[in-house]
Amino acid sequence: MTQIKSEPNLISVTTLLDAEPIADVCFADFGLSEDILRALGDQGYVHPTPIQAAAIPMVLKGRDVMGAAQTGTGKTAGFSLPMIQLLLAHASTSASPARHPVRALILTPTRELADQVAENIKAYSKYTALRSVVVFGGVDIAPQIGALRTGVEIVIATPGRLLDHVQQKSVNLSQVQMLVMDEADRMLDMGFLPDLQRIINLLPKSRQSLMFSATFSHEIKKLAATFLRNPLTIEVARSNATADNVTQVLYQIAEEDKREAVSFIIRERNLKQVIVFSNTKIGASRLAVHLVKTGVKASAIHGDKSQAERMAALEAFKHGEIEVLVATDVAARGLDIAELPCVINIDLPYNAEDYVHRIGRTGRAGAKGDAISLFSEKDERLLNDIEKLIGGGSAGKEGGQKQPKIVRLHLAGFVAQKLVEPQRARSSEGRNLSSGDVRNNRRAAFRSDPSPSRIDPWFLQPYQPAQSTLPPDEKSSANSSKASQKPVRRAALLGGHIKS
What we know:
alpha/beta; Rossmann fold; 2 domains; 17 helices
């Protein structure tokens, strides 16, 4: 059951499952064109999700909107479908670039999310004359310049690369009618605020602006006040909650054993498609290398990878050529894998909201999913922050009547393989020596007296000068010949040869 409560400048959407379509509402009820409905039919979409049902009519009316919705609730269609509908009045089949100015701009924090949004825009507008292009860093800018100069109505971009095109004068933003900021909270976290302000200053003041964010923090509201006009706020209930169809399990593992634990879970569950999240780039790379050594087809994507490498790994994962994709939070935004059965957190995220985004990769569109997290003693504070955000306590804690969101279990059958050097594995009377004991024993061995049987007696005798073997007469003649010899004077010229 879904209820939509409307107040002045506020729409609150309450639903049992945020991504569950509303059965009694169809996309055709919004007055979308036949071309758009035909494209939606190709995608198999008939009924909108709650965020779509609330946002599409308001955007079609020309209102500025602030939407609070998590990834996986269908917010991309919530702003792209009405955008395409409003731009159809300017669609043209002319080949002249002048007939295809940039009329809509969508800003995203990461390359993957930009590419994902661009795919959706292309799918929804494929039966129209509207053109779209995606621009982001990490790839050659020349093809992007060529595409922009041919004329496009919709540009999907990351802030940094868009400013590069502005500097190259390959894009003109003076005719933009609609601006969308997707994942605005992530853009602020990544330090894009100065770039966003520069871009906003390049846009016409008379435009429609939309902002979608996971939460409306003070910084988000401050940014919205600078470019939104009397915005309508659309909030999906339980915006920080996790889907009920995702089973959340937590295993306590020693920090040094986490990589082996991930390999064990993948083998025991026979997982053929799983995303593993790491907090650091080097941690993601090391885990991918470890999994490959254990016979698992794995690859890593993070900020140090080139865009070509990241896209190739993502495509290979979607087609089943790679079983495990190890990703950081920056690279993971925008990943949309159909029917992904499981995600694993080898590290608990520093930001509790990122936990919701991570496990939102699975259990999409009402499907079942598993979210497995590993934590050590140092992660206790991060776990508490996550539990406060999503509500409920973890299993095993006494008190309270809340149903646990994250269940703590024991990883049955897992035994970490300790790789110890032989010299450090020596035992004394059945007890393994520590590394400090081994070092002390070695020092004592060097300080102890050497065995007398190994000493050559010659080294213990006192010094005696060597006796000459020449006869007395030969000794005197040798000394006299030495005395008669005069030293030979030699002179050396600078840069020349020695003369005698």
